[in-house]
Amino acid sequence: MRRLCFSALILAAVAAGRAAGVATGPAEIATFNKDVAPIIFEHCTSCHRPGEIAPFSLQTYEDVRQRARLIAEATEHRFMPPWQPDPAYGDFEGERRLSDDEIAVIRQWVEGGAIEGAAGDLPRAPAFTRGWQLGPPDLVVTLAKPFAMPATGPDVFRNFVLPVSIKSRRFVRAIEFRPGTSKAIHHARILIDESRESRWRDGQDAEPGFGGMDAPGAHFPDGHFLGWAAGKSPTETPLAWPIEAGTDLVVQTHLKPTGRAEDVQPSIGLYFTDKAPATTPLMIRLGSRTFDIPAGAANYAVSDSFVMPVDAEALRIYPHAHYLGREMTVVATLPGGRTERLLHIANWDFNWQDDYEYEKPVALPKGATLQMRYVFDNSAANPNNPSAPPQRVRFGPEATDEMADLLVQVVAKRPADAGTLRADIARKSLAADIAGEEKRIADVPADYEIRNSLGVHYVQAGRVDDAVGQFEASLGLAPDHAVAHYNLGVIATNRGRLDEARAHFERALAARPDFAEAHGNFGVLLARQGHTADARNHFQRALEIKPDNVPAHNNLGRLLLADGRTGDAIEHFEHIVRLLPDNVAALDALAQAYAMDRRFDQAMRFGQQALARAIAARNDALAREIRQRLQQYQQDGEP
């Protein structure tokens, strides 16, 4: 929220009086206690105090006096407090920007001798909650072993994996990130990974975590982005997001040397709610993965756009680039031609990246065009350029690569429109991923991870033969690539080439014994071949690895039904319904299992729930099938 302190109002009144030709009298001398302390306490002390990220405290007159000129310079150049958005583009919660008048007060105080002033003018020092700012978390996860950060050297980008010990799905209403005692963590992004891919990568060396700025398998929760930076306060979201049993949190950290060796051991507090969100937000992603910035280019522009297919509202915005980013502009052109300013950063600083929540949702009506334009400086004149002399730069996760990404969190105005919005967003994201990965392979043909990823995206686009080519090329470069073997196994299964599929699943599990999805799909294959005991073992192993693996629960439940073990089967279908209470297929399967167990009251109850959801989804064919089953349950249940 924007605020003007009392001293700022005085300065504004003085300026107005001079403009009107009114005699103002001698200027009042600024003092710390009366004029400067309110500014420092409101905008600076939250970070500049013991135990926080800032390198020194600003809690007392003496603290501030010792660094008076440094503070005046830093605020005049707007290095501090760190806040990048232009005030003319969007009103954001928690804005840390100082007003021009507040900056002038600090300069006036410094030039006037940095006087302390009357003790009675000093406002009460701010009180801060010790420890967790949102109160005791419901669950705290901490990096098991600290990472040793060297005292000197280059910045380090490290991904830390924190397993979440929960027994079933929970809804997260807030998270709070604590960097621990180390001041080496400059900022972090928090992702979730249900695939255990990050856990596997973590095990490839003796150090905690794994390097780089890419974490395949990890992603933000659907429709959310989670991050931490110095000065960022934790907040609660009204749109809680689900986290499943067996999920890992992946903390992508940017670590900066502090001049002494540091033990980095972050913690995350999770705050749960039993209430599912009324709606799920969606994430519009703009940007490019095909840009190619020549060495020396000082004004290289990247643009992208998205036309809103339905009425929606923007809630948050997250821009991202690396060290070559200079300027960012995001606007929405509305159907009538009016321009809605969403974000502008004139001087991007990678070290102070953040996401921003609008004070009020921003209307994006159907037909509005969301537009971004980023400008990059790859010249020697860019003091942040990581390469000297400048080098050609393309999209990539490393600090010497570059990114041009924008995420906008939105919700459809009408719940019925959410599916249309989701589908359009998915189409755009898929096309962008394919274009970027094709460009990467053209530049770096030996990148087997990207070839595997491109294969997955080709499958999603219906280009299965092209996908097979990429998976095979990936294996040609890395013969034991478990995920590529798994992907080929799935395709071969769908094409009825079961012996070929079996060979790929066996190779995948030889390379990755804890690959839950490979166990599950191998189980499906074995069941089709009549090896039910072996299939059951693989489904059970998949559930040991990922207790909330819905396909494994479903497949194991159906095997148990076929064996006549209806009670055991019902337990698996009940587990699925607890995880997916509105899922038509899950409710229908549970109803059928109860009917086979001759518990017709329960069969009718869940069958009616399935029918209601099928009707709401306008799935007429499925609704007819469920009605027929309900009639049969009623007949079979009559005495």
Produce a short descriptive summary:
This protein has 639 residues and is α+β, with helices and mostly antiparallel strands. It is built from 18 helices and 21 strands.
Structure description:
With 639 residues, the protein is α+β, with helices and mostly antiparallel strands. It folds into 4 domains: 6-121, no CATH class; 139-273, Jelly Rolls; 282-414, Jelly Rolls (Sandwich), CATH 2.60.120.230; 481-637, Tetratricopeptide repeat domain (Serine Threonine Protein Phosphatase 5, Tetratricopeptide repeat), CATH 1.25.40. The protein has 18 helices and 21 strands. It has helices spanning 6-19, 32-43, 61-65, 68-76, 100-111, 197-202, 418-443, 448-460, 464-477, 482-494, 498-511, 516-528, 532-545, 550-562, 566-579, 584-596, 600-616, 620-637; strands at 139-142, 147-149, 156-163, 170-178, 185-193, 210-211, 226-229, 241-243, 248-255, 262-264, 267-273, 282-287, 292-293, 300-307, 312-321, 325-333, 339-345, 356-364, 369-376, 393-394, 404-412. The strands form 6 sheets. A 5-stranded antiparallel β-sheet has the order 6-3-9-5-7. The radius of gyration is 29 Å and the shape is globular. It starts with 5 loop residues before the first helix and ends with a helix.
Our count of helices gives: 18
Radius of gyration: 29 Å
CATH superfamily of the largest domain: Tetratricopeptide repeat domain
* CATH-assigned fold name of the largest domain: Serine Threonine Protein Phosphatase 5, Tetratricopeptide repeat
Shape: globular
- What is the CATH top level name of the largest domain? Mainly Alpha
Mind telling me which CATH architecture of the largest domain this is? Alpha Horseshoe
Percent strand: 15-25%
Mean pLDDT: 90
